[in-house]
Structure formats: structure tokens, C-alpha cells
Amino acid sequence: MLSIIGNGYNRDCEGVTRRELLRIGALGMSGLTLPGLLAAKANAAYEGSFIKDKAIVLLFLQGGPTHIETFDPKMMAPSEYRAMFGEVKTNSPGVTFGKHFPQLAGLADKLAIVRSFRHGVGSHRTASELVAAGGNPTQATMGTIYSRLAGGSNRVTGIPNNVVLTPPAAGEKYKGLGTQTERVTGIGSLPATYKAFDPSSGGELIENMKLRLAEDRLDDRRELLTQLDGIRREADATGVVSGADRFQQQAFDVIVGGISKAFDLSNEDPRLVERYDTGAFEIPAWLKKKKKKKKSNVPAQSPIGLGKQLILARWLVEAGCGFVTVTSAGWDMHGNAFGVNDGMPLLGPSVDKAVSAFIGDLEARGLSDKVLLVITGEFGRTPRINKKGRRDHWGNLCTLAFSGGGLPMGQVIGDSDRTASRPSTEPITVQNLLGTIMHSVFDVGQLRLETSVPSEIARTLTGSQPISQLVG
Questions:
Q1: How many CB atoms lie within 10 A of CB 390?
Q2: pLDDT value, residue 298
């Protein structure tokens, strides 16, 4: 028996260890092993399930991204309201974005921008928890709900179904960057079993991906990869892989390829990594010095890891993870860290580059319809620029954008008033956000018939209306 597990044996109510990922029969590839599961899935063995073959990547811009400088520049408004850096035309007629998003402007036909998203809350913690949970009464985040309904890990690949990626998840050089996760990973009234895996917190996710051999052979990750490479060479020499059917091949790739490549960006095409790379958006020394005098936490808000975080997000959904939350700090632009004037030239282009690369990467891999990207934060920013050239907390309009997921893109949903202060059309609510995401990953009609779904969650999901322009 070859098992890929972590160290720990706490079991959930179904008798499965929370940290167990894969267990197959000695690569014998017979019986109800991983190949059998792959074949069963391909043969629609899960037909009738309410879980769709979809995934969510939630890019949470922590601090409250300005809705005006991102996707609603309002250049016809008085100067104290309009986007500070101006606008850029998109490939959708009549639609403009903030000046720092030229690459996304060229992909506007692959985006759905919501300009009437509001919830009215101006407190960081309360608003973050509200948006991350979609306002559901359990107060558990949407990722936690997904994990509760779909299972703690993917039944085919063993990949955790709910993961949060902060900058340190992308490598040692990003340690010390913003890692605040508690506001976007809350479990509410649900069991802790379903909380998001956080690889930046003690490396738990990476440990979960280690091959379980003798303890003295797992001293470090290098030894693990050596063992896996040995299995690969032996299989090649004996013809185990070449003689396998496509499900056996896929199973072998999951174990020997997927696990050994987990979180190892050296296996990615360097040209692809460069398209994602946000390392150029390092905070300049003069700005660090200036902020240090004000006892600011600006150094921790650097966006240099965002591109690699999104590469990891793509790897996770490609390997079967259902819900990935990616965090990017620094968007609290009223002077504690950045203001709009010095924050947007760094944070805006990092999102523009990394998200554009992510959208293109998904399309190249045939995953655009499978993966729904959601871009938001806890709230927006005051429409009127204050006396210090900054914007304060504002919950009456918030940034929200979507891409992919098989939903109709190339549209602007709703509108704001003349000064981007409030919706001028029917507001889109956090419950609408919840409904849109949950209708994307679940067959809500089928979910009503499932007796295993907690009644509170079932009522919430069946009663949450998605954004009508996205999900009918």
C-alpha cells in the first residue's frame, strides 16, 4: 500500500483522517484504487451529485480596494471624485477601467464588472467576514461551505478542497509579507475540519502532500522528491506506465508528477512564470523610508508574490481543489500604509499583470469554463478624495469583478451614480455574490434533495439569488 499522508490521525465523522490525501494499492492499479476512481468519474459515476466540475478562485484584495481607481473611473465627475490617475479604454465599447489596468482592459470581453455592489459596512473585520461568507447565517466563509458540501479533499486526487494562499505560500523569499487570513477563513458554526488549509502557517498543506514512507526517509522535501523520482524511473524501466490505460497513466501522474511538483515553480515554463511575475513591483527604498518614519507597515504590503500565488492557485484547481482564496494586502489606501497616490502605482499594475496572466493561462489549458475567478475586497473607498489625497472606508460601493466559470462575460452589471457614491441601479448584495458562486459550483436544485446537507446551509443556498445577468 502506498499512502500519501501527513503526520496526524485526527479523524472526521466519516472516519477519514483530515490530513490523509491519497491511498492506493501499491501502484498495482486494480480494484477501487485511484485509477478506478478516475475511470468512475469519467464514466459519470457521480451522476446525480449536486457537485459540479467547477472551481472558484477568490482574489481578495485586503484593505478595501478603491472601486473608482479599479473599474469605475468616473472621469465625468468633478475632479475631487474622479479616478486620480485617469482611465484606459477597454476592448468593450464605451467601457473604461482605471489607468493602471491596461492588460485587463484588453481582456474586458473576458470579464464581468459589477458597478453596483454594496453592503454598507465600513469596518475591516466585519466587512471582510461578511463578504467572505456571502452574508450566510452560519458565518462560515464560502470556501468553508464548499468544503463542507464537497468534502475536505477532492475524492479523486486527494487535493484539499479549500485552500488559502498568502504571499509566503509562494516561497521563502515572501516570508514577512501580509499573511492575515482569519478574516477570510472563518468557519462560523461549522466544524474546524472544513477550515481552509494554509500552507504559510506551518507548511501544513505541503506536509499533506508528502509520500508516507519510513520516517527516516522523510527528513526533508529533497529526500521525498528523490524517492518519487526513483519510483518514476523504476516504472519507466519496467513498462508499468507505458502499459497502463489512460486512467492508470493519469493516476501515476497524480502521484508521481502532481505531488512531486506541488508548490515547485521550477517545474513551470520560465516564460509562463515571467508572464505572471510581479517581482518588479517592489516597494522603492525611498517610500519604505518615508513610511518607516510614520511607523507604517508598508514593507509587509508588497505585491511581489501575487503572480506566483496565482500560479499556485491554477495548479491547485487543475489538480482538483474546489475553492482557493488568494490574498493580496495593502489596499487600505487612506494613509496607514498606502494612500491612493503611492499605493495604486504598485498594487494596480501587480493585479493587472498577474490576473491577465491567470486568465490567459486558464484559456490556454482549456480551463476557462471550469474556473470562476472572483475579484473583490471588504469594501470600497470614499468617492471624494480627502484633504491628504487619499480615500477612506466606504461600504456603499465596492469592487467586484468576475472572469470565466462558463458565465457570460464581456458585460458591465449595474451602475453607480454620478460621483460613484452609491448604486444608481438595483444594488448587488453579498447574498447575490454567495448565490452566484454557489450556483456555479453546485446544482442547487439537486442539492434540495440531498438529505446529507445541513438544513441551515440548504436553506441559505436555495434561498440565495445569484446575479441574474450571470446565472439565470
A1: 22
A2: 82
Residue 254 buriedness (CB in 10 A; 0-12 / 13-18 / 19+): buried
User: Hey, is 338 helix, strand or coil?
Assistant: coil
Helix H or strand E segment including 183: none
For residue 440, CA distances in Å to 64, 245, 342, 434 come to 25, 32, 37, 10
For residue 392, the tally of other CB atoms under 10 A from its CB is: 16
Dist. CA 396–CA 287, nearest whole Å: 31
**How many Å apart are CA 79 and CA 70, to the nearest integer?**
17
Write out 344-377 in H/E/C secondary structure: HHHHHHHHHHHHHHHHHHHHHCCCCCCEEEEEEC
Are the CB atoms for 136 and 434 separated by under 8 Å? yes
403: part of which helix (H) or strand (E)?
strand 400-404
Cell 504571499 found at? 167
Delimit the domains of the chain by residue range. 1-47+212-261, 52-209+267-463
pLDDT tier at 300, thresholds 50, 70, 90: confident
Question: Strand 323-328 vs strand 162-165: parallel, antiparallel, or unpaired?
Answer: parallel
Q: Residue 80: pLDDT band by 50, 70, 90 thresholds?
A: very high
Angle 54-57-62 from CA coordinates, rounded to 5°: 160
Question: Which candidate, 310, 345, 342, places its Cα nearest to that of 325?
Answer: 310
Q: Is residue 347 scored above 80 in pLDDT?
A: yes
Residue 215 · residue 364 · CB < 8 Å: no
The CATH architecture to which 52-209+267-463 belongs is: 3-Layer(aba) Sandwich (3.40)
Give me the mean pLDDT over the 28-51 stretch.
Answer: 48
Q: To the nearest whole percent, how much of the chain has pLDDT over 90?
A: 59
